[in-house]
Amino acid sequence: MKKRILSIVSVVIIFGTLFSCSQGKSLQELLQEEKKAIDQFIDMNGLTILKDYPKNGVFGTNEYYRTTDGLFFQVVDSGNGKRVQLANDVSIRYEYCQSIKDVAAGDTTKYYYPYHPVYYSSSPYQPMSFVYGISATYSSTATPVCQAWVIPLSYVGEEAVLNLIIPSALGSYYDMNTDIRPVFYKNLKYTRFN
Q1: Total count of domains within the chain
Q2: What is the DSSP letter of 111?
Q3: Domain-embedded: residue 22
Q4: Using CA atoms, how far apart are residues 178 and 183, in angstroms rounded to an integer?
């Protein structure tokens, strides 16, 4: 009798384990979904991806530059010419951001505006900041600050305005550590270098 009960319990455990494993997605599957969603977002918006940064720094209406890190960005305004210096405090504002997976799935109305998901204390109207050159400030569990916001600073100056397509690997703490969430930022502005 004990053997029979043990056998039944073992079968239940094995099937339970197999079922639960089949419900979760592997990292590889999530990364493939992310790439597919980004590709769909690019197609849906008729974007042209440039392999080289424009020599004159001027982008066409639907042109985005793809960095070697995988960040896509479009410079709307290159700023006032003042360049960021090591240890400058860089302040950021943005119009809105949205999940690229949601847009690719057909939900084009789901904006994280004015708040980024989870970061209810952050708002595009309240600048967020990081210290240029100090990577520990490029991520926060309380704001959407991310590595992707740092990368374009080698191309643009203070008061520059950009649109960004950010893969999760360059995204915020939330975007990287939940469900591999690529994000689009509209009119992200570097408001101040101090």
Answers
A1: 1
A2: E
A3: no
A4: 13
Pairing, β 89-93 against β 48-50? unpaired
4 in a domain, yes or no? no
For the ranges 20-24, 136-140, 150-154, the lowest mean pLDDT is seen at 20-24
In a domain, 146, yes or no: yes
Secondary structure E strands in the chain: 48-50, 63-66, 72-77, 89-93, 96-99, 111-112, 128-131, 161-166, 183-193
pLDDT digits (tens, 9 = 90+) for 95-113: 888 889 888 888 776 566 4
CA distance 65 to 165: 10
Task: Give 20-75 pLDDT, tens digit per residue.
Answer: 444 588 889 999 999 999 999 999 999 999 999 999 999 999 999 999 999 999 99
Range of the structural domain that residue 71 is part of:
29-193
Distance CA 153, CA 151 (A): 6
CB 160 within 8 A of CB 75: yes
Q: Distance between CA atoms of 75 and 188, rounded to whole angstroms?
A: 10
The answer to whether residue 94 is domain-embedded is yes
Q: What is the CATH number of the domain that holds 176?
A: 3.10.50.40
